[in-house]
Amino acid sequence: MIKIAPSILAADKSCLLKEIKKVERSADLLHFDIMDGHFVPNITFGPQFVADLRKKVKLPFEVHLMVEEPEKWIVPFVEAGSDLLIPHVEATSHLLRLITFIKKRGVKVGVALNPATPLCSLDYILSEIDMVLLMTVDPGFGGQEFLPEVLPKIKKLRKIAKRKGTFLDIGVDGGINGKTIKEVIARGANVIVAGTSIFSNSNPERVILNWKEL
Ligand code: DX5
Ligand code: ZN
To answer: The whole model's pTM is what?
Structure first.
């Protein structure tokens, strides 16, 4: 099943709750982009921000950790009410330890890979995680252009997951629009993260419902 995860990075923060309410009925997850100004050249939200929205939004929260030393941020973001935590493989030297730590806190775990990071970085951990988030832009900003170089990577990962006999959630993040979504779904992606193309539309709900029919 295709799951749509709107990224609130692209939503108007001056009326954020109103923006989120536009997608709450149609979306499957809400995507939070946590940026620390070190792992990526941008700063966004902290745990308190997630905790405040947790009280007012029913959707599951998918928290994409674009931070150095993700180990430090697991407990604060779990306590804030995250449902799925997604650190980057490039940000930790102890990936398996980090995954185990997250699972022990009772939330789901995914890992994100930058466009240039090879799939072999998942070799020894794939059976331990709930999802892989393949970045289709270099992370740090919304509104960037989709990198078609990642398409074969999506296809290859779906093949690996099938061979293992597991259904793995494969997410894509960055530059997803009405055209690129078809390309990623055709390669086996099933969790679609999108900011600009959802929140810049006058009818975000319609965008999501259209995509779900694909
Ligand atoms: C980029 C973020 C994305 C971003 C996607 O670093 O991880 O989640 O919000 O934005 P769009 O859909 O605008 O490319
Ligand atoms: Zn993201």
So the answer is: 0.98
Do residues 85 and 65 touch, judged by C-beta distance below 8 A?
A: yes
**Cα 200 to averaged position of ligand 1 atoms, centre (Å):** 13
Instruction: Give per-residue pLDDT as tens, 76-130.
Output: 999 999 999 999 999 999 999 999 999 999 999 999 999 999 999 999 999 999 9
Point out the ligand 1 atom lying closest to the alpha carbon of residue 197.
Answer: 12
Pick from 4, 141, 191 the residue to mutate for probing ligand 1's pocket: most ligand atoms within 8 Å of its CB. 141
Give the residue extent of every domain in the chain.
Answer: 3-212
| Terminal Cα distance for the chain, rounded | 10
Q: 140 CA to middle of ligand 1, Å?
A: 8
Indicate if the pLDDT at residue 141 is higher than 90: yes
**Rounded to the nearest whole angstrom, what is the distance from the C-alpha of residue 7 to the centroid of ligand 2?**
7
Residue (of 191, 119, 110) closest to 153 by Cα position? 119
> What CATH code would you report for 3-212?
3.20.20.70
Query: Is 180 near ligand 1, meaning CB less than 6 Å away?
Result: no
Q: Based on C-alpha coordinates, what's the Rg of the chain?
A: 16
Among the listed residues 73, 76, 75, the one whose alpha carbon sits nearest the alpha carbon of residue 87 = 73
